[in-house]
Structure formats: C-alpha cells, structure tokens
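tool_call: predict_structure(chain=1)
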Amino acid sequence: MSTIEISALHKSFGPLEVLRGIDLTVATGEVVCVIGPSGSGKSTLLRCVNLLEQPTSGTIRVGDVEVTDPDCDIDGVRRRIGMVFQQFNLFGHLTVRENVTIAQRRVLKRSRAAADKIALENLARVGLADKAASYPAQLSGGQQQRVAIARALAMDPQLMLFDEPTSALDPELVGEVLAVMRGLAAEGMTMLVVTHEMAFAREVASRVVFMDGGVVVEQGPPAEVFGNPREERTRVFLHRVLEPTSVSETEIGARLTE
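tool_result:
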C-alpha cells in the first residue's frame, strides 16, 4: 500500500520550471530520503505534497485522497500529515507544552486535559518531558526542533514530512534530532525526508531519491545509490559531498554513532 503517489508532477514559478515531471511513490512504513544539490526542487516537491505549494500540473495522492483534486478537503488531508521545517516555527510566547497542545485543541478539538496528556507523551518520546514548562527561548536549537517534531506527532499523523530539519542547527546539535528521526523510522512511521545528512540517509532510508534540475535522476536502496550509482550526475554529486575532507560524511557519521 502506498501512502504517497506522485505522478507527472510539474511546478513552475512564473517562467521558472522547478519540478519537471516527478513520478514518486512512498509505501506505508517506508522512509524515503531525497538528496540533491541546492535548487534541485527537493523542498518544492515536499511542499507540494500538502499543497503548501500548488502544483502546476500532475497528481498527488495521500492515502486514498487525491490532494490535487480541486474538490479535495485539503485541511482534512493536512491533519493526516505532520511536517517539520528547517525553522522551528514555535510560538515564543507559549510554553513548550502549550506549543504542542494548541493545534490539538483548535484543529482536533481535544479537551485541555486530553491535549496535555498527548503533549507530555510526545515530549517524552523526543526526550523533552522535563522541558514542558520552558519557553522556546530557553531551549537550544536542537531542543526546539525536537519540540516541533513532538508537536507534529501529537496530531497523530499517518505520514511525516521533514524539510532539511537539521540545516538550521549548529553541528553539535544535529545528532539529537537525527536520533529522534531514527526512532520514528524504527517505529514504522512513514517518512519523506529532504536532507543533506548523507550518513543518516545511508543508514535509515528504505530508499534514496537523488534529484537534480527538477527531475528524479536516480533512486534505489541506499547501498546501491551510494555504493554504485548508475548515473554520472549522481556520482559527481556524491563525490563532492562525501569526499574525505568534507564535514558531512566524517562528522555526521561520528554523530550518529554517539
């Protein structure tokens, strides 16, 4: 069963065509990591899945719902999709607990008591139960991003979208966020992850998708894409980001084994 089915997806911003015919499926329980250079369309693809960007053409299905159908109840679909952005987007004037309960109460109409219980359960899930009464400014960037993940999980999503969730973090804080994501993958959460963390993609992904120039150049199991890429564009990209002098592979690998 597929949680996401994307077919012939195009997205243009004026004369600039950012996505040029994307076909992609994500099976239930699968972790798909999308990699590629800046400007390749990765984040735009992710934002099209829950219509934060309106596709120019093509179809997207999430579960049994075609989200690109003009009559689709997109708010209903979004309630089934958790999304974590590069920036944490927490409300600075609310405590951590309040940040995790506000959407539950307003969107899902849960009682305060029920929302509080679910908030604390999910804060514990990301290792932050002791920070429920803190404010975002009192937390590190890694802790804020973990709160953002807890907030998304509290809505009981069928699917989690991650848009480079570690890119705004100091290097020493990346590992704690990746550890939470590894835990979600181990629990069987369906995840579509745009990332530049190559060691994470190699270790955790069911499948790696390499994008460049608005198209899917190559996809397959991590061992194949990283170990024996078929396409020259993939080989050039991986050589550039994985060379020994690069921070990404050496330091990220160390973080993931801490």
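agent: Residues 245-258 have pLDDT under 50 and may be disordered. Proceeding to next step.
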